[in-house]
């Protein structure tokens, strides 16, 4: 699959109309990585997200845009992160879901 079909982009620093943030209105930070998986084939979607989240440092965030609530994927990410994950739903619509994923510090044993 050509890499140009994968959309990972930092959010714009300025709203196109009013200079008040970014254009989608889903309340994510302008410095966050946004991964829109709707264009990624389903067969590799989970692996793509897991790999991208694995590159996020402690304290870092990524906004995932999916065509539905990605509950099985979130369970996989939680297992990968060993519990060091915070999930915040920003947009929940029937055909679109925006989820902020934050890597937290692992619990000290």
Secondary-structure-based class equals alpha+beta
User: For the CA atoms, what is the radius of gyration?
Assistant: 14 Å
Which bin fits the share of residues in helices?
10-25%
Order of strands in the sheet with the most strands? Answer: 1-2-3-5-4
Distance N to C terminus: 42 Å
Question: Which keywords apply here?
Answer:
22% helix; 5 strands; Translation Initiation Factor IF3; single chain; 2 helices; disordered N terminus; alpha+beta; globular; five-stranded mixed β-sheet; 109 residues
Structure notes:
With 109 residues, the chain is of the alpha+beta class. It has one domain (27-103): TusA-like domain (Translation Initiation Factor IF3). Helices cover 22% and strands 28% of the residues. It contains 2 helices and 5 strands; from the N terminus they run ββαβαββ. The chain has helices at residues 42-54, 71-81; strands at 7-10, 33-36, 61-66, 85-93, 96-103. It has a 5-stranded mixed sheet, covered by helices on one side. It starts with 6 loop residues before the first strand and ends in a 6-residue tail after the last strand. The relative contact order is 0.19. The model is unreliable at 1-22 (pLDDT under 50).
